[in-house]
Amino acid sequence: MTDGERNVNEGRAQECVFCAIVAGALPASVVYADEHALAFLSLEQPNPYKTLVIPRAHVSSLYDLTDEQAACLFQTTVRVARAIRDVAGAQGLNLVQSNGRVGQQDVFHVHLHLIPRMLGDTADGRVVLRWDETTRDRAELDRLAADLRARLGQSTG
Length: 157
Hints:
The protein is an alpha+beta fold. Helices cover about 35% and strands about 15% of the residues. It has a single domain, classed as HIT family, subunit A. It has a five-stranded antiparallel sheet with strand order 1-2-3-5-4, with helices on one face.
């Protein structure tokens, strides 16, 4: 990270609610903390134990994470998800991560929502995730996969 990038991130961090939580300036019900990540209960609890996991460093989006930050963040996420499953007796879990305004990101500090799922929670309207489930033809899928492989420097799937 260059000095210019560091200064921009530090400026954003001064106004970030999650950075204020990391700094101890705002309260949070902390679930897990280490030198790289922090996990705390979400103010919204569609099901008990819904948790947010964040990097301690101010990083605006998933796209901006270093490989090391991403690894630490996801290791913490898996550890906390297992605890949620065991304590909540959850039959499932949704992991939600949004980027950019169009992606419905509301706090511009990368974070993951761990939402425990229980039988019946969709039917009673507590948790609903939806998207178009229309299947695409193989030629279109192969074309899209080729676009991504090219960007990733991969020759075949």
